[in-house]
């Protein structure tokens, strides 16, 4: 998705030409939920001069009530006109960075934090960290009476199925069209493995705008699905006994000479930097899982038997390990991290992934040998002999691992790390104290 460079005058002209009447100022909270402040177009000049203020005390992970006044600084490269119109005029959106009342960047803003980590990357001599994602989602029927989501799937299709089996095809097609109207370069869309499960793939972007694109993508998917009487969810495992939804992350590091991960003289085509970056990812994988898989339900997906990665290993030849090296070389050389799911805050996930890889480069961390067998059929003894460890099995275990890793904690910064750990501790405690239907079914009569 190419990002045009808009000036203030460009924006003023677009607003006039397109009859924009409302401005949606968007930012993301600690947990990855997109928030917005909507103002009439009469406030455009205030927005362009960074003079829009809001109360940040009610936003998860932001600030206390006694320090609530915050500024919104628009990133004009994210300016867009939403394709769904309004009877009162068009709505434009722009993603903003959050600033403190003293005009300094607020480091509890996940986008500001990613900008900080990218600045550190550039200090090491790299120019770009490109990210391409493969987000999956489910479509469920809405109750026709209440319009509330149900747990009834809209089809019983499977991988690459066509209509009439894939009843989500029209919805998915409209999602693609709306994304293209917003400037996305959509590469493919298809039915996924599980009934009611879908995937739309769009072109990679630099890390910051890739995270922006994920947020905008989720907004479009949910909005279009509702028009079709459907509820779209990015919940990793909404139903038992079917494949869950992930968001594979493809990544490449660049400098002025091109893709740093490619080395034509190496037998594998992978450079030393690529191998060190891979080593860093593997070293920190257990510890950044709380960020890339941040909810209780994430760990219902990360189990054997449903194609999701469970074991910390890598390969260029099979899809069972955590990290795969796709066959493409040259400018397309990349690493694919397969554990991430779409409930992750994309700004935090990209920051921690990048920092883990850069730690590998700084400290020349060699990755272990690749595992080119199907790890799912290996015995525990075979995995142990190959130094293959498991990803955390619960959010609780993932948080314990995160607390021990200063590299990953530093990738979040002090404010975000403390807020995240405390919020997720509360989430785990609430889950741990809840009595589930499974427990009642299993134990209620037996004991």
What is the compact description of this entry?
With 447 residues, the protein is of the alpha+beta class. The protein contains twelve helices and 19 strands. The strands form three sheets. Strands 7, 8, 9, 10, 11, 12, 13, 14, 16, 17 and 18 form an eleven-stranded mixed β-sheet that branches.
Describe the secondary structure blueprint for this structure:
Blueprint: H1 8-17, E1 20-28, E2 34-40, H2 44-48, E3 52-55, E4 69-74, E5 80-81, E6 90-99, H3 110-123, E7 128-142, E8 149-153, H4 169-181, E9 186-191, E10 197-202, E11 205-206, H5 207-227, E12 230-233, E13 247-255, E14 258-259, H6 272-292, H7 298-301, E15 311-312, E16 314-315, E17 323-324, E18 335-337, H8 346-362, H9 380-385, E19 389-390, H10 395-403, H11 406-433, H12 437-443
Parallel strand pairs: 1-6, 16-17
Antiparallel strand pairs: 1-2, 3-4, 4-6, 5-6, 7-8, 7-10, 7-11, 7-12, 7-13, 9-10, 13-14, 13-18, 15-19, 17-18
Biggest sheet descriptor? 11 strands, mixed
Helix content: 25-40%
- Taken from the alpha-carbon principal axes, the silhouette is globular
Rg: 22 Å
Q: What is the CA–CA distance across the termini?
A: 58 Å
Average pLDDT level: 90
Based on helices, strands and strand pairing, what is the structural class?
alpha+beta
Helix count, per DSSP? 12
Strand content: 15-25%
The total of beta strands comes to 19
User: What low-confidence regions span 5 or more consecutive residues with pLDDT below 50?
Assistant: none
Oligomer: single chain
């Amino acid at each position: 998705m190419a990002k045009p460079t808009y000036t203030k005058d460009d924006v003023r002209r677009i607003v006039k030409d397109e009859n924009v009447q409302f401005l949606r100022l968007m930012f993301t909270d600690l947990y990855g939920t997109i928030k917005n402040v909507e103002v009439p177009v009469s406030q455009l000049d205030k927005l362009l001069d960074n003079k829009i203020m809001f109360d940040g005390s009610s936003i998860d992970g932001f600030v206390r009530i006694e320090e609530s006044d915050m500024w919104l600084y628009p990133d004009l490269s994210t300016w867009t006109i939403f394709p769904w119109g309004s009877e009162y005029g068009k709505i434009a959106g722009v993603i903003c960075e959050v600033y403190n009342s003293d005009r300094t960047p607020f480091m509890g803003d996940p986008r500001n934090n990613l900008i900080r980590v990218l600045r550190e990357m550039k200090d090491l001599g790299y120019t770009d960290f490109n990210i391409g994602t493969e987000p999956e989602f489910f479509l469920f029927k809405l109750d026709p009476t209440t319009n509330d989501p149900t747990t009834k799937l809209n089809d019983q299709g499977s991988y690459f199925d066509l209509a009439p089996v894939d009843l989500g095809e029209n919805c998915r097609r409209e999602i693609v069209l709306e994304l293209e109207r917003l400037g996305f370069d959509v590469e493919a869309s298809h039915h996924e493995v599980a009934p009611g499960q879908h995937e739309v793939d769009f072109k990679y972007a630099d890390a910051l705008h890739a995270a922006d694109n994920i947020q905008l993508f989720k907004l479009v998917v949910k909005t279009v699905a509702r028009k079709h009487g459907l509820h779209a969810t990015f919940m990793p495992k909404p139903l038992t006994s079917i494949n869950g939804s992930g968001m594979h992350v493809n990544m490449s590091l660049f400098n002025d000479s091109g893709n740093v991960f490619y080395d034509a003289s190496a037998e594998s085509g992978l450079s030393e930097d690529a191998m060190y970056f891979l080593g860093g990812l593997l070293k920190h994988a257990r510890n950044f899982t709380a960020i890339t898989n941040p909810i209780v339900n994430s760990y219902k997906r990360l189990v054997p038997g449903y194609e999701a990665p469970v074991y910390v290993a890598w390969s260029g030849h099979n899809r069972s390990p955590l990290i795969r090296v796709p066959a493409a070389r040259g400018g397309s050389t990349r690493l694919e991290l397969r554990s991430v799911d779409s409930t992750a805050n994309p700004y935090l996930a990209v920051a921690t992934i990048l920092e883990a890889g850069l730690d590998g480069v700084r400290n020349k961390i060699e990755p272990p040998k690749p595992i080119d067998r199907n790890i799912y059929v290996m015995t525990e003894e075979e995995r142990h002999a190959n130094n293959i460890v498991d990803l955390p099995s619960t959010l609780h275990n993932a948080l314990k691992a995160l607390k021990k890793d200063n590299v990953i904690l530093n990738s979040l910064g002090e404010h975000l790390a403390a807020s995240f750990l405390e919020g997720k501790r509360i989430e785990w405690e609430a889950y741990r104290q809840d009595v589930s239907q499974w427990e009642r079914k299993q134990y209620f009569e037996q004991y």
